[in-house]
Amino acid sequence: MDTTHTGSVSTLIAAVLLTTCSSVVALAAPPIQDEFTPLSADAVHFRGGLEEAIQNSITHWNKGVVPYAGFVEMFRTGRKVFAQGEMWGKAVRSGSLLYRYTQDPELKRILTATVVDLLTTRRANGSISCSEVAAQPDGPGGELWERKYVLLGLDGYYEHVENDPAVLQAMIDLADVTVAQIGPPPKVRIVDQGWSPNHIESSTILEPILRLYKRTGTQSYLDFAKYIVEVEGGAKGHRIIDEALNNTEPYKIGGVYPKAYEMLSLFEGVIEYYRATGNERWKKAVLTLYRNVREKEITIIGNGGGDQPYHPAVLGEAWDNTALEQTNPDMKRMMETCVGVTWLKFCSQILRLTGDPSTVDEIERYAYNGLLGAMKPEGDGFSYVNLLNGVKTNPEGWGGTIDGVYVTCCNLNGPMGLAYLPVVAIMDSRIGPVINLYNACTATTSTPAGKRVRLEIATDYPTSGTIVVRVAPETPEKFTIRLRIPAWSTETRLSVNGTVARAVPGTYATIERSWTVDDRIELTLDMRCRVLDGPRGSNRAGDDKQALVRGPVVLARDENIDADFHKPVAIAAEAGYVDVVPVKPSLPTTQMQFRVPTADGGSIQVVDYAMIDNWNGKRTCTWLPRAPTASQP
Question: What pTM value is reported for the model?
Answer without folding.
Answer: 0.95
